Amino acid sequence: MTGISPPRSVARNAAVVAGALDVLVIVIFVAIGRDSHDEGVNLGGLVKVAAPFVIALAVGWCATRAWRAPRTLRTGVQLWIISVVLGMLLRHTVFDRGTATAFIIVATVFLGLFLVGWRALALVISTRRAGSAASRPT
């Protein structure tokens, strides 16, 4: 890296895309869970189950200022921990929903794999692109 910051519009776009991907991860997690429990994948049900985790994710974005480095692994790990811990607390206390041990384990693994995983994949792709661009003759 050269230490030069990207233009604000590029940084803003990266943050918007990262935020959308993070929310998508939670929605997919909820949709898979609802489908596996034969609860159907309807909008009302998705919102009801996803809400505590999306709220926790939003708190995580604010607490970590994730928009500053939305694609780093560190940001992914921080958002993962906040989303799981705060999401479970909200689910249990505010939304009066269950937090069985199996659910906590599945949520922790899935959200960790995908909130951190898409960032790891982006890192690998950008590293490969940078490497292939550097090896091109000028």
Map the helices and strands:
Blueprint: H1 8-36, H2 43-64, H3 73-93, H4 101-135
Features:
138 residues; mainly alpha; 0% strand; elongated
Question: What does the model show?
Answer:
This protein is mainly alpha-helical. It has one domain. Helices cover 78% and strands 0% of the residues. It is built from 4 helices and no strands. The protein has helices spanning 8-36, 43-64, 73-93, 101-135. The longest helix is centred in the C-terminal third of the chain and has 35 residues, at 101-135. The two termini are 19 Å apart.
Which structural class do the helices and strands define?
Answer: mainly alpha
The number of helical segments is: 4
How helical, in percent, are the residues?
over 70%
Major beta sheet summary: none
Question: Low-confidence parts, pLDDT < 50 over ≥5 residues?
Answer: none
Number of strands: 0
Whole-number radius of gyration?
Answer: 17 Å
Q: What best-fitting shape do the alpha-carbon axes yield? A: elongated
The percentage of residues in β strands lies in: under 5%
Gap between N and C termini, in Å?
19 Å
| Overall domain count | 1
Give the mean pLDDT: 90
**Can you write the helix and strand succession as a string?**
HHHH
